[in-house]
Amino acid sequence: MDEFEALLNESFEMDTPAEGSVVKGKVIAIEAGQAIIDVGYKMEGRIDLKEFANPGEAPDIKVGDTVEVFLRQVENARGEAVISREMARREEAWDRLEKAYADEERVDGAIFGRVKGGFTVDLGGAVAFLPGSQVDVRPVRDAGPLMNMKQPFQILKMDRRRGNIVVSRRAILEESRAEQRAEVIGNLTEGQEVDGVVKNITEYGAFVDLGGVDGLLHVTDMAWRRVNHPSEILAIGETIKVQVIKINKETHRISLGMKQLQEDPWDAVEAKFSLGSVHQGRVTNITDYGAFVELEAGVEGLVHVSEMSWTKKNVHPGKIVSTSQEVEVMVLEIDSAKRRVSLGLKQTQRNPWEVFAETHPEGTEVEGEVKNITEFGLFIGLEGDIDGMVHLSDLTWDGRGEDVIGDFRKGDMVKAKVAEVDVEKERISLSIKALDSDPFADAIGGVKRGSIITVEVTKIEDGGIEVEYEGMKSFIRRSDLSRDRAEQRPERFGAGDKVDVRVTNIDSKTRKLGLSIKAREIAEEKEAVEQFGSSDSGASLGDILGAALKRD
Predict the structure, then answer these.
(1) How far apart are the first and last CA of the chain?
(2) Are residues 301 and 276 in the same domain?
């Protein structure tokens, strides 16, 4: 009895563990999916087996194991202790995680659920939040393969009082990726030929995986020829051979090239495409200033807009050629240093002005449509899609061109004669009046300067008289009406009078005759003196003129 009393007193002296603390217990049985645990102090409790399992794993517990549990309540209605393995793990995990966070160490965990904006992660008892942006270095479309898989995480921040933990998987990947990149880049040298896999294609190029590090293959380095889009020659997942063009040790950026592994077609351009030679090419691109024509893979030349057509001026190149069209061009200039070839399209055809000059010599009659009317003449459409111009002065023999140009309309079909062809200036002069004979030339016939002709007075004016000869009007000034000053009176003449005059000038441009009665009289006097006497003979002027009159 004394011994029993001593043991009883000892048990009373032992403090019962406080609720809310972590205690050690022993598994004494496993039944109905639960583990029965003796936590001492004559207390037993039950815990579901799933609390002893990590995400994606089977419960790791057996009879006889000693485990730590969280005492939530000393005794429930059934007289059992209320305990939790999960809460004990959480407390244990927080202590461990706080230390790892302070030491900036990685922690192991498993993604086990989705929540708004990210995922939940079990860190060995504590639940953390994994933002969607921190899952991978690139956006993840399907996170299924990552679920319930043990993997390392980096703690970004944690607050034990609020029970908040934020972790990142991306930080781990970037760190390992940086190490891997540094190792791969360290083994690469500029000019080295390597194999890579196309990971992504953009408008400006493709990203190629070189075994842990990506390099950029720019579209201009894919081929010597023009590549409009990388997808023309590459596909995602394709393995290709590339050359390392440049490595930036600071940014770890790698520039790659494919065309560098091929022979540069420009090395043989001058030998293959000599100046003046004609070649077949394909239009690859059209701009405001011309069209690019591919002579062969990797060699393109520019046909400037001024070299596209003999006749179509100030026209957009797209109205002359179209993309992918096969055209014949002539090599005009080669600049190998700048990798430029100047081409001509019009040079493969004969100059239409040269052809016209050969087939239409001066005086040839042509017919065409009035294309345009300007203040200085008409433009007539001719063969070969070229125009000829009829100047105002070439419209009519009679009157002024300014007065008759109004009789013409756009679209009228007119006839004319070729007056002149200037091939260099690309000008063709036409004449409509040349279709008829020149009435002025017909009228004057054999009249020359100095000839005496008979004219008819048509009008009397203060300054002189108007006369007519073969239908042509001329004007004799007062001073030319007589040698004698007293006789220089217009009123002594009458309309219809016939008068002999001397031709002093023939102006084909103004189509006028210069006439003078005075000049005729002086000429007659001079002739009489020469024939019937001289000042040395002593004969008077009256005697000479009298003799001349008797002879007549």
Answers:
(1) 202
(2) yes
How many domains in the chain?
A: 6
Block residue for tokens 């592994």: 261
Domain holding 356, by residue range, is 352-431
**DSSP conformational letter for 81:** B
- Going from the C-alpha of 295 to that of each of 281, 299, 302, 371, the distances in angstroms are 5, 6, 10, 38
The token pair at 345 is 């399209």
> Which tens digit of pLDDT belongs to each residue from 79-130?
577 776 666 677 777 888 888 888 888 888 899 898 998 999 988 778 899 9
pLDDT tens digits for 444-502? 777 888 888 888 999 999 999 999 888 788 899 999 889 888 888 899 999 999 999 99
Task: Say yes or no: 510 and 449 in one domain.
Answer: yes
Per-residue tokens: 328: 């014949």
* Same domain, residue pair 161 and 212: no
Q: Is there a single domain that holds both residue 248 and residue 270?
A: no
Judged by phi (left if over 0) then psi (alpha if -120 to 50, else beta), residue 422 lies in beta
- Same domain for 237 and 196, yes or no, is yes
Looking at this protein, which amino acid is placed at residue 541?
Answer: L
Q: Is residue 396 part of a domain?
A: yes
